[in-house]
Design a protein that fits this description.
Strand content: 15-25%
CATH architecture of the largest domain: 2-Layer Sandwich
Largest sheet: 6 strands, mixed
Shape: globular
Number of domains: 3
CATH class of the largest domain: Alpha Beta
CATH superfamily of the largest domain: ATPase, nucleotide binding domain
Structural class: alpha+beta
Radius of gyration: 24 Å
CATH topology of the largest domain: Nucleotidyltransferase, domain 5
Strand order of the largest sheet: 3-2-1-6-7-17
Helix content: 25-40%
Distance between the termini: 63 Å
Number of strands: 17
Number of helices: 14
Amino acid sequence: MPMLEGLGFTERSAVIIDFGSAYTKCGFAGDSGPRCIVPSVVKNSKTKKRSKIWQFKDEEELYELLKDFLQHLYFRHLLVTPKERRVVICESLLCPSAFRNTLARVLFRHFEVPSVLFGPSHLLTMLTLGTNTGLVIDLGYREAVVVPVYESISVMKALQCLPLGGQAIHRRLASLLETATVSTATQSEQPLGKAAADLSEEVIEDIKVKCCFVTNFKRAKEIQEVTLYGADEGKLPAPPPVLEYPLDGEKVLHINGKIREHTCEVLFEQDNEEQSVATILLDAIVQCPIDMRKQLAANIVVTGGAAMLTGFYHRLQQELLHLLKQPKYKRDLAISGFRFHQPPAKENCSAWLGGAMIGCLETLPHKSMSRDTYIQTGVLPDWCSLGTEPEPTKDKTPTRK
């Protein structure tokens, strides 16, 4: 494309796409960050309704959603021809097979891309750090996933997962905001429900980012004594200041300190099975062989957009040290502390950056699945499969002894 030579598109770098439940990151191999971060929402060309690409009834509906969504990415944001670019997909271990197979069908058959490499997000995240061993915790929108990696091998039997992430925080925040008040220039404060101010998902997310934070361990225990164990509300610590959040230009939402501080506690409150974001991290270490545990505890890698909350790292460290003293973990874990890696990119873009790095390697064509192979076999191999070429047909003719 001659008219785009000045924009750096002449090398035909691979396209890197990270499909998230809330947002999708897209860009080119070799870049330090994605060219665009867009919501994982598309307008269906047939129904004319906007829907998330992860919410589909069957594979045919998903095919149409992905086709329209990728059309928007290629020709609105990237401005490149799909046939000329290899593709690297950053995928989660919990990605449904239907989504994975349909995505391959759209890329190979509709857009006719030369090759596609499906890279597991936890290994791509570790690639940015240059380490072979680590404990990756992915705190995304729908779930928190912990995957131990030892010498570049994923320890699948120790994988842990909980439905805690950005979506759980949004639900808690929406519930707490029912007690918030709204005021205007002519009216005094009144409850949010009476003001008929319905908050969209985008507004709730903006409030979470701008107003909420993860409190320290000591205050959190005092809060949990009241919210979980029914202690007197007078024992709650003094709340942070009230913040004013503008709505619709004229309405002002008053967010008290209790809402700001209590929202993110959903990540660390243990459920009926005594599990939280901190416990699944320790459970993953316990499930690994004993000679791996100390090295995993010293190489913790945090990724995912929900991990970008203010105070999250400090709180997670304090929770882990507190749990080590409990009988459940004290016997099996002879660990004195934990160490966290600082990734070279923001937590929500760590996996994408790993994909951008692997997209620059000379081995990319050999590790990727070519379009010819896919058309010939019609089978998409699993990410742990080393070979993508079809196996030769074995001659079943009996041989003489």
